[in-house]
């Protein structure tokens, strides 16, 4: 874990399973946590507020992000204010737009001026970063979350966009850039190399941390053994 502990990028655990969230929270290298309605729905969460308050009863000293889920901006702002009231370590996730493609910049500006700690989420373009940077309160901590993994899914290298985004956000000393939706463990090191402040990492990727610096000759042998054992179990014959 020495290699992980020496990273400058902060690793935030992304999930909605309480036991796993608390397990990650207990690890020193996990600096914060995030969740979203999709993860919560997959985890079978039915009472949104009850779940969040339950988590916050045990996680008080690391930042944690909860997302609004209204598509109406007035109601989105109402939800944001309520969520923000749940704890000083809470960041409120605001999507970059609603389902009607209307940008949320006005609501971001209004909430930021009201000193709500925001996590602006689902960004994928440089223009979105530029517009968000114009409305954030420089005196209030915030996160700008770029879905680098989803950008990569389209065949576009997200790294240049992340580098440019860092430059745009330099005028906001309390705003941190998040590399969101990573697809592989390597993304943690890529985020660190470009100077990204935070990367959100799901459980399936976090499980691979034990492979960091694993001997590649041994890994090669492990792979050969896997193929052989599976063929034996399947009873294949020629």
List the helices and strands and how they pair.
Elements: H1 2-5, E1 10-14, H2 18-25, E2 30-34, H3 37-42, H4 48-56, E3 64-67, H5 73-84, E4 90-95, H6 105-113, E5 118-123, H7 126-135, E6 142-146, H8 148-153, H9 159-168, E7 175-179, H10 186-194, E8 198-202, H11 203-206, H12 216-234
Parallel strand pairs: 1-2, 1-8, 2-3, 3-4, 4-5, 5-6, 6-7, 7-8
Class from helix and strand fractions? alpha/beta
Q: Taking Cα atoms only, what radius of gyration do you get, to the nearest Å?
A: 20 Å
Strand composition percent: 15-25%
Task: Note the main sheet.
Answer: 8 strands, parallel, barrel
| Helix amount | 40-55%
Number of E strands: 8
Q: What this model shows, in words?
A:
- By secondary structure, the chain is of the alpha/beta class.
- It is 45% helix and 17% strand.
- The chain has twelve helices and eight strands.
- Strands 1-2-3-4-5-6-7-8 form an eight-stranded parallel barrel, surrounded by six helices.
- Helix 6 (105-113) links the parallel strand 4 (90-95) and strand 5.
- Helix 7 packs parallel to helix 9.
Give short descriptive properties of this protein.
238 residues, eight-stranded parallel barrel, 8 strands, 17% strand
């Amino acid at each position: 874990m020495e290699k992980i502990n020496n990273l400058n990028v902060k690793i935030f655990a992304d999930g909605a399973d309480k036991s796993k969230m608390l397990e990650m929270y207990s690890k020193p290298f996990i600096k914060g946590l995030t969740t979203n309605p999709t993860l919560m729905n997959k985890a079978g969460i039915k009472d949104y507020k009850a779940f969040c308050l339950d988590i916050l009863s045990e996680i008080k000293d690391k930042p944690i992000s909860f997302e609004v889920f209204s598509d109406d901006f007035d109601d989105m702002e109402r939800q944001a204010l309520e969520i923000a009231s749940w704890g000083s370590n809470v960041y409120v996730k605001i999507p970059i737009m609603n389902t009607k493609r209307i940008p949320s910049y006005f609501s971001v500006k209004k909430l930021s001026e009201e000193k709500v700690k925001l996590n602006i989420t689902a960004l994928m373009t440089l223009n979105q970063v530029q517009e968000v940077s114009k409305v954030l309160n420089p005196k209030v901590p915030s996160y700008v979350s770029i879905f680098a993994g989803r950008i990569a899914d389209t065949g576009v290298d997200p790294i240049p966009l992340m580098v440019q985004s860092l430059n745009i956000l330099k005028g906001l000393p309390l705003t941190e850039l998040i590399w969101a939706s990573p697809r592989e463990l390597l993304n943690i090191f890529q985020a660190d190399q470009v100077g990204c402040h935070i990367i959100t990492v799901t459980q399936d990727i976090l499980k691979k941390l034990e492979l960091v610096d694993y001997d590649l000759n041994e890994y090669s042998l492990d792979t050969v053994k896997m193929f052989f054992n599976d063929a034996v179990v399947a009873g294949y014959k020629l």
